[in-house]
Amino acid sequence: MTEFYNFIIYCSFGYYPWNPISLNLYNSSLKNLRMTDNRLGESFPPYKLYPPPPSLQDLNLSRNRLQQFALDLGNIRNLSLQNNVLGGFLSTHSYKMSNEYSWLEIIDLSINGIEKLAFILFKGQPNLKYINLNRNKLQKVTFDVSRLKSLRYLDLSSNNFTTLDEKAMVMFDGLFKNTNFTVNLQKNALLCTCNTLPFLKWISITKVNLLLNDKCYLEDGIGFSFYPINSLIQQVQKGCTSYTTLVIALSVGLAVMLINIVLALVYKYRWKLRYMFYLAKSKHYRYKASSDDGEYTYDAFISYCDDDRSFVLKDCIENLETEGNAKLCVHQRDFLPGQEITVNITNAIHDSRKTVCIITRKFFESYYCMFEFNMARMENIYSRHERNIIFLVFLEQIQPKEMPLMMLELIEKQSYIEYPNDEDGNIVFWDKIKEAIFLDICCPKTFGICVH
C-alpha cells in the first residue's frame, strides 16, 4: 500500500523546509521519501535540522541545487544527493552529521562538481556497499574507505583521474581481502607514461575488479590498448629506459658544462676571490685596513725573495728609511706574530701607498712573491680605482719571455726601473724609487716603506 502526504510549507527567516516535513512524518511508517527537482539551495545547514523519521530508509534529494548538506541519517539505507552543488562543502565536511552508528548502504554523490573529498567523509558508515562519485572532477583519492569492510562497488567513472597513487592502490587491495571489490575507472583519461608505470604494473597484479577504458594515453594524446597489459607495460618500460638514459645523459652533460663554467670563472677571477677572502679575513681579525684617502700606515710594501734579503735589509732600508725618512715595515720586524702570512701580506699591501717588487728569477719561483704581486694587482683594481700602485725593480737582466704576461703589461706602462749597481747610477736609482713611491702625494708628510 502506497502512502501519500501533502505539505504546505510557509517559509520565513531561519526556517528550513526539512524540519516541518520531518516533524509531520516522525510517527509515520514512511520508508521512501523523494524531494527532487526543487531549489532548496542552503536548506540543509549542519546542526539545525531535525532527524529523519525512524522508518525512513530511502531519501532522494537529487537535483535541488544543494550547496551544503549534513543530516543525522538515522535508519536511512539509501541516500541520493545526485546533481547538486556540494563539491565545496564535501571537500571539508561530511554529509553525516552525528557520530552515531549509520545503516547507510548506498550513497550517490554523482554530478556535484567535486574536485576533492574530505578524508573522513565516509567515517562511521561500516555498512556502505556502493559509493557513486560518477561525473565529478576528482583527480586523486583523498578520502578514506579502508575501514568499509562491506564496500563492493566504488564508481569513479567520468572524472579527471590519470592514474592512482600508491596509497589508493594499497587501500583498494586491502578492501578486496574482505569482499569482492570493484572500482569503476571508465571514462577517465588514464595515462600510460613513465610516471604512471607503477599504476600499470598494479593493474597487472591486483585482484581488485577494475573497469577500465579500452585504451590509455600518452601525454601527447596517442592511445594504446590496455590489453594485453603486460605487453603495454613492456612497451612503456622500453620508452622510459631510453627517456631515462637521455635525461641522465643531458643532466650529466649540463652538470659538466656548469662545472666547467664555474671552474673557468673561478680560475679567471681566482686572484680577486683570494684578495677578497684575505681582505675580509683581516677585518675579521680586526686588523685596521686603510682606505684610499691618502692616509696609509706605510708608504710602500716591498716584495722580495729570501735570496735578495741583504739588498733589502741593507740598501733599501738605508736609502729609503734611514736617509729618506721612510717608515719601513720589515717582515721580521713588523708583521704581526701569530697572524697568517697571507693575512699579514694582504694587510701590508692594503695599508701601503705603493708596492715595490724586487725582481729576480728567484722571484718568479717563489710562491709568496707571486702571491704578493697578484694581491697588489687586485688591490690596484678593486681598492685604488685602477690607479697603479705597483713598481718593479729589476736586480738582474731578465728576458721578456721569462716573465709572466701580467708583469709585461706593467713594464709597458713604464712602472719599472733597473738596478745600475754603480755609484753614480745608484743616486738616480734611489731618487726614482722615492719619486715612484710618493708620486701621488700632494702635500708630503712623513714617508714610509713596508719591507717584506
Automatic annotation (TrEMBL):
Name assigned to this protein: TIR domain-containing protein
Annotated GO MF terms: signaling receptor activity
Transmembrane segments: 243-267
Coiled-coil intervals, chain numbering: none
Keyword vocabulary terms for this entry: Glycoprotein, Immunity, Innate immunity, Leucine-rich repeat, Membrane, Receptor, Repeat, Signal, Transmembrane, Transmembrane helix
Signal peptide positions (record): none
GO CC annotations on file: plasma membrane
GO terms for biological process, alphabetical: innate immune response; signal transduction
Family statement drawn from the similarity comment of this UniProt entry: Belongs to the Toll-like receptor family.
Domain TIR: 296-437
Lineage: Eukaryota, Metazoa, Spiralia, Lophotrochozoa, Mollusca
Membrane topology: Single-pass type I membrane protein
